[in-house]
Specification:
39% of the residues lie in helices and 14% in strands. It contains twelve helices and seven strands. The protein has a seven-stranded mixed sheet with strand order 3-2-1-4-5-7-6, sandwiched between helices. Helix 6 packs across helix 7 and helix 10 packs parallel to helix 11. The longest helix has 16 residues. It starts with 8 loop residues before the first helix and ends with a strand.
């Protein structure tokens, strides 16, 4: 089964500053590319736990005594590490991109290239699918999803059109959705706008923003002092959340200051923002919007 080439592979794993005897977590296992690189750097006493909610990813499990794959959403990281008797770890890596496998499996409905049922669930057990978002959400709610997660300025017009068409006939497949919105898809920008629409629906279906916030909030408690967090994001909304959390320990507002005006935040930035090289972008087009931020636990 083909999964994608891991993005910023060496940079993200370098960011963890691996202790060969440490305990690490890869919360977005996918095809196992980042996990394999972490295992290469671990000694016999090191340990790696990986999370992936997608059943398909289980086929990529690595046969190694130091490795445990947990088939759960990483929003539950603390709960499932506790279940395995782990309270503290040396480093956590997250690659927030959708795997190429999910895009390339036509029937998952992630891609604008294939006609498929409107699905987009990373965990096929979840109830909410793209079909519900497109056919059941109120116009205002739909507009908000397209605006917030797709950064589409004409989100109101798109939502209005969807609601108008679905009142006569359900919109069941990705190509049907394309057809409904075709007057808003000028040939020169068709692919870009469709990608933004599909991205918005996917983020809503999988609650990606809420999941990211819940995950980040748990990381300071899980990391040992000096432990590392290495996060690759692909969407400005995700990147802003990661950046703000590293800076302030919060997603909004400013952290409280003590009597002396000092701010006590759980993490501190390590190095600068890292983006893929031109060579990597050329070899792997999907890396083009990737941003890597690394933080150290204070």
């Amino acid at each position: 089964m083909t999964y994608h080439n891991p993005v910023l592979l060496f940079e993200s794993v370098d960011g963890l500053n691996i202790d060969p005897n440490g305990i690490y977590v890869d919360v977005t296992f996918g095809g196992g590319g980042h996990s394999k690189e972490i295992l290469k750097r671990l000694g016999v006493n090191g340990k790696l736990y990986a999370f992936d909610q997608d059943q398909d990813a289980l086929q990529n499990a690595i046969d190694d005594d130091r490795f445990v794959l947990i088939n759960e959403n990483f929003r539950y990281i603390k709960r499932f590490l506790r279940f395995h008797g782990v309270k503290k770890v040396h480093g956590i890596l997250a690659d927030l991109g959708v795997s190429s496998h999910q895009f390339d499996e036509a029937d998952r409905g992630f891609s604008t290239r294939f006609d498929a049922d409107l699905d987009m669930r990373m965990n096929k057990e979840d109830e909410l699918s793209a079909y519900e978002v497109i056919n059941k959400y109120e116009e205002e709610e739909l507009s908000s999803v397209l605006f917030q997660y797709g950064e589409l300025r004409n989100s109101r017009a798109l939502a209005r059109e969807i609601v108008k068409v679905r009142s006569e006939k359900e919109i069941k497949t990705s190509f049907e959705l394309k057809e409904v919105l075709k007057k808003y898809l000028p040939k020169s920008k068709e692919h870009k706008i469709l990608a933004q629409i599909f991205q918005a629906i996917r983020i809503e279906v999988n609650q990606e923003i809420e999941v990211l916030k819940e995950f980040l909030m748990q990381t300071p408690e899980l990391l040992i002092e000096g432990g590392r967090l290495s996060v690759i994001s692909y969407h400005s909304l995700e990147d802003r959340l990661v950046k703000r959390f590293i800076q302030n320990g919060l997603f909004e507002g400013e952290p409280e200051k003590d009597f002396y005006g000092n701010v006590n935040v759980p993490l501190k930035k390590a190095g600068k923002l890292i983006v893929p090289s031109l060579k990597e972008i050329k070899e792997n087009n999907r890396s083009r919007s990737a941003k890597l931020r690394v933080a150290i636990k204070n």
